[in-house]
Amino acid sequence: MSKPFMLYSAGTANGHKVTVFLEELKALYPSLDYDFQKIDISKNTQKEPWFIALNPNGRIPVLVDRLRGDFPVFETAAILLYLQQHYDKDNNFGFAPKSNEDSEVLQWMFFAHGGVGPMQGQLFHFKKFAPEDIPYAKKRYLDETKRLYGVLEIRLKNREWLVGNKISLADINVWPWVRVHGFGGIESLDEWPAVKAWVNRMAERPGAQKGIAVP
Q1: Which pLDDT score is estimated for 1?
Q2: Is 18 within 8 Å of 64 (Cβ atoms)?
Q3: Predicted local confidence at residue 25, as pLDDT
């Protein structure tokens, strides 16, 4: 019998957002298991016609929901919201619809989706992969990533999670990026102690550990 979900992804920060949440869900709802196919982005597998049919943007990850007619979902934040809305029946990772906390989750997800991910992704590119050394670009994206960490520090000061008093999609959506800060040359999170504590708090969760182990 096939598992409820098929995930096409890779071991990147964006990929790990979804695997972390799937593992967190599976711990609470054991029937919500998934198959995984690694996409070799170095070979542009995500640009092949079969993948473009699932995600016209040609980016990982893509989730296919076999329980709902092989319905495909792309964009990490959209996948997280889809899974939570359809399968987190006890609302363990969300809040009451239309509540202030529900709005705050969306605000912090959009903050990460439009800020931390793109800026830190550009930092990684110009630091590690650009064919020429462009000091201005490296400094620009390093400074912006640090600024965004400062925003997280403001929010996390004197609180354990980004929204409410429990882990939510807001945390899962940004933690996989912040945890790999060293790849962009930010060697320590000591400058942001609340963020550092939060990163470590997330890292202690079995679901997070299993999620980031998916290649």
Answers
A1: 72
A2: no
A3: 98
Terminal CA-CA length for the chain: 24
10-residue mean pLDDT profile of the chain (215 residues): values are: 94 98 98 98 97 98 98 98 98 97 98 97 97 98 98 98 98 98 97 98 98 95
pLDDT of residue 215: 86
Asked if residues 18 and 5 have their Cβ atoms less than 8 Å apart, the reply is no
CA distance 184 to 181: 6
DSSP 81-114: HHHHHHH-TT-TTS--TTSHHHHHHHHHHHHIII
Q: Identify the residue whose tokens are 């016209």.
A: 56
- What does the block give as tokens for 2? 């096939």
Backbone dihedral region of 9: left (phi > 0), alpha (psi from -120 to 50 degrees) or beta? beta
Site of tokens 């462009």:
134
Closest C-alpha to 102, from 88, 118, 114, 116: 88
CB-based contact 203:14 (threshold 8 Å)? no
Q: How many helices (H) and strands (E) does the chain have?
A: 10, 4
